[in-house]
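Case 246 in the screening queue. Each case pairs one protein sequence with one candidate compound; here the compound is HOJ. For every case the pipeline is the same: read the inputs, emit a complex structure as tokens, and attach any notable structural observations.

Predict complex for case 246.
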Amino acid sequence: NVRTLFFSDELCASIVRSHRETSQYRLEELQALTWKVFSREEIQAYQSKTVDEMWQHCAVRLTDAVQYVVEFAKHIPGFRMLSQNDQIALLKTGSMEVVLVRMSRFFNTENNTVFFDGKFAGTEVFKSLACGDLISAVFDFAHGMCALKLTEQQLALFSALVLINADRPSLEDRGRVQRVQRSVELGLNHILHRDNQDSLMHKLYQRMAVLRSLCVLHMEKLRWFSQRYPLTAHSLFPPLYKELFC
Ligand SMILES: COc1ccc2c(n1)CCN(C(C)=O)[C@H]2C(=O)Nc1ccc(OCc2ccccc2OC)cc1
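Case 246 output:
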């Protein structure tokens, strides 16, 4: 009915604006960098880093991305309305998922490279992390997202839906999160219907299932890493990375 349609228009606009204002790099900037790849020497340098040096290096850069996702969340009207604890609970499980969704904008499917440290890196750059399965899963997921060719508006609504998920653990007011989630779903449905791409909704839910297992893998690797290198994980990782993922 009109009320829900009206509501979703206004909600869509604020989510799209928030996505644009917190996207960290503009698409044009990234397009200019796309073909800047690492030289053999530079790849060698990454591959000769120790496991804990490389994990720390990546954690610092990914924390950059997580900060922007936290800003994105704060600008979503429905998210701000939730209690502090529920906002933290959603960010704890959802922020890495949104980083991985957004990572697809920083991915070149032609040569299977992802933006990293100012250039585009293939999987071989991350060899010293000693988690090839996580990296190939990250790259596969980025490929899958690129294949959907989402517009920035669709990506914005999808990112909000990934974040505002009433099934997350330890929520205080699940009902309230459900209402916000429902209005974001309406917004995404509205956008996809307007773009004549209703079929995408089903594919996006499949992507969310893959994303959840990918983040479980990330947490498993991170647990393995922090047991093996407790000092690095507890004193050298950025506080936000520790707070959200450790
Ligand atoms: C929102 O999307 C993006 C996309 C790219 C970048 C950013 N934001 C922030 C700025 N940035 C910089 C400065 O390099 C990019 C970055 O961090 N790239 C990058 C980092 C680590 C990678 O794999 C390792 C890994 C992956 C997943 C989980 C744990 C991991 O390792 C422990 C791959 C790429």
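Case 246 observations:
- DSSP finds twelve helices and three strands in the chain.
- The first strand starts at residue 107 and ends at 108.
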